[in-house]
Structure formats: structure tokens, C-alpha cells
Amino acid sequence: MRESRHFPGGTWLALRIGFIWAAILVALVLASARSEKVQSLADYIAAICAQPLRPPPAQEALYVSETIGAMTKMMIDMGIRPSGDVDADFVAMMVPHHQGAIEMAQAELRYGRNEPLRRMAQEIIVTQLQEITAMRLSLGQTLPPSAPSSGQTSSPAIRDSKLDAATLVREP
Predict the structure, then answer these.
(1) Under 8 Å CB-to-CB from 159, ≥6 apart: which residues?
(2) Where are the domains of the chain?
(3) Rounded Cα distance, 155 and 56, in Å
(4) What's the distance, CA 48 to chain centroid?
(5) Neighbours of 41 (CB within 10 A)
(6) pLDDT for 30-41, tens place per residue?
(7) Are 95 and 132 in contact (CB under 8 A)?
(8) Within 10 A of 47 (CB to CB), how many other CB atoms are there?
(9) What is the DSSP letter of 47?
(10) N or C: which end of the chain has fewer CB within 10 A?
């Protein structure tokens, strides 16, 4: 667990709650796969979405919309059909999980104002991209083709995450 020096008052714990929910959902999916009646990930998402949420404040609506979209896409994309290759299945589930973290971090960079959290969001983007690349290479998968953009060299994992340099730089 990361030191709390960046986030006094337990803010780091609050950030991890979203990831804990994702882990719970994955555990439920795995548990259901062992039961006689296998339910789909869509059933779990539908059950969660059936719970009414209060609307966010207007200034937070775009952020909430983007993060909910990222989490929903992540959960759907993590719902794989087992291939018989545990390693390939692990990567197939972890890449969308990491991609979801990247997209949520990008939303923090677009809408957040807390500089320590924004720095952490940048770290999340970098480390998750590195891990996606490492997992794919470990399986011998080819990375998406790379092409430099606007005078900068861009890694295939960055393009794959729909990240651009403007996302990491906040205008004054």
C-alpha cells in the first residue's frame, strides 16, 4: 500500500474503494462460474445499475459520467470466456482492468484540482501502461503499431489507451 504522506486523512483509502468494488465483482463472477447456475457479468452490472443514484452536482457531472463509463466498459471487457490458457485469460482480464484505471486517471487529470491526486493520476497512467505492455510481451503478443504524433515519440501502449500529451498537461 502506498504511503499516506501524499494523502493526509486517509484519502488514499477512498481512492481504493472503486478498485475494491471491481475486485468484488470479479470475485462474484468467478464464484458464479463454479456454481451450477452461471450468471453473466451483464446480470451483475444490471443489478448494480438498478440501484438509483442521486445526480451529481452540475460541476461534477462530466467527471462522474466519464468514470462510470470507464468502470462499466472495464467490467464488461473483463468478462472473458475462458480459453483454456490461464496466462492468456489473466492478461485478457487484466488489460481492460488496467485500461479502466488509465481512463479514470485521465478523468482526474481533466477535472481534478488536487495537485497530489493529479500527480498520482499521472503515475497511474504511466505504470498501468507499462504493465499492459509487459503482460502483452510476456505472452508474445505484438503491440499495436507505433506512430509518432506532433513531434513526440509515442509508445504503442499509450495510443492503445487513447492517451495524448494534452491529457497529462494542465493548462493554467
Answers:
(1) 144, 146, 147, 149
(2) 57-142+150-168
(3) 35
(4) 18
(5) 18
(6) 555 555 455 676
(7) yes
(8) 11
(9) H
(10) C
Q: Which amino acid is at 113?
A: R
Question: How far apart, in whole angstroms, are the C-alpha atoms of residue 130 and residue 92?
Answer: 16
- In the structure grid, which three cell numbers stand for residue 130, read together? 507499462
More confident residue, 149 or 129: 129
The pTM is what?
Answer: 0.59
Q: Which residue has the cell 494534452?
A: 166
Residue found by looking up cell 500500500 in the block: 1
Asked if the model's pLDDT at residue 84 lies above 50, the reply is: yes
- What are the Cα distances from residue 161, in Å, to 2, 75, 80, 126, 153? 24, 16, 19, 11, 15
CB count within 10 Å of CB 109 equals 20
Considering only the C-alpha atoms of the chain, give the largest distance between any 2 of them, rounded to a whole number of Å.
57
Cell numbers linked to 56: 451529481
Between CA 124 and CA 101 the distance in angstroms is 7
State yes or no: pLDDT of 29 exceeds 70. Answer: no
Q: Check residue 149 and report its DSSP letter.
A: B
